[in-house]
Amino acid sequence: MDTTKKVNSKELLRHTFNMMMLLKQKAISVEEAKAQANLIKQSNNLLKYELDRAVAIQKYDGIEIRNIEE
Amino acid sequence: MAFFVYLYSLVFYIIFANRNTMEEFLLDHHSILCKKDVIDYFKLSPRQMCEMNQNHVIFFAANKFFILNYWQCMSYNHADFMKENIQNILEKYEIMPFYVIRGKQHIGYDVKKFAKDNSLFKKQLRQTNYIYKDATGKMYGITTQTQFLDVLCNQDELKENYKKAIEYIKKRGYEYLRNDLDLLYSANCIYGVDDVKIVKSVDELIKGINQLTK
Q: How many distinct structural domains can be found in chain B?
């Protein structure tokens, strides 16, 4: 298993699309697809949070939003 | 793959090959007209004179920038020589005017329709490998087909490689290649897809997967 894969929005998109294709070809089971979709949704929510945070910091001066790692 | 087989089998030796920088090759081959005998008038042989003038060109392949050096005797017409070389390296290529390449770089799509219609992901884009000018100064690009998803996902790596290439050409004193490098970079960037759009697209894809698994 490749554990050194980059994680960014584009790689997430590629992975999701590949998974959808595998599901359409019936190369993966429904359970596996569901589990992976849930994981991707969580990762995507983190990315959304980061983007919203960046927008908020740009819009409002001196706003304090905690870092995602904290 | 064919590109690397060609590159390593024919010619060349790598002057500077490091994963952290760009790669530079030397086409160490002289034309048959480039003789080693000394001509009295110059006190130099054509070979010696040729080796004082090395040509450098920059091209793009496998998401990386490469510099190719070759002796001047190999090309009387710089553009044609490079065009032929690049055409030998690439398997299937197409030559396009540069303004056509520029026009195809803006990718717009409807996020909502996106999970239902996956044609965008199967779409083929053009990767520009080499840009040259014809005798009238009009710019053309030698291009190869790649998948949209690969091009999109490799954008960050492309940016990194571009920065490395800028550093490298400064370090080696090839500043005059900067314009070609910038053109190649801009020709291989795609516009109109930002992180917000990508995140929304992933959401739509997850919805699509959930519908399929119901």
A: 1
